[in-house]
Specification:
- The chain is an alpha+beta fold.
- The protein has helices at residues 13-28, 46-50, 74-84, and strands spanning 4-8, 37-41, 59-62, 65-69.
- The protein has 3 helices and 4 strands; from the N terminus they run E-H-E-H-E-E-H.
Amino acid sequence: MKKIKAFYLQNCPHCKRAFKMLEELKSQNPKYSGIEIEYIEESENVQAASAHDYYYVPTFYVDGVKIHEGVPTLEKLEEVLKRAI
């Protein structure tokens, strides 16, 4: 499986919703359950955040390629998981 990096901010409501959606998708589909996501809190790891090209959170990269940025939907997050397989 490919590596997923998720950039977020602790108090971001869209980030919190995205993480709940990811857990829902993983629980509904066993093929997603083994996918590991590296969560990077933007304000705590400024160096890692600065090394990536994005403006909005949450932002998801799969093997270094930006797949999603901004307001999440189940469809967009499922695409992130599918690209990691």
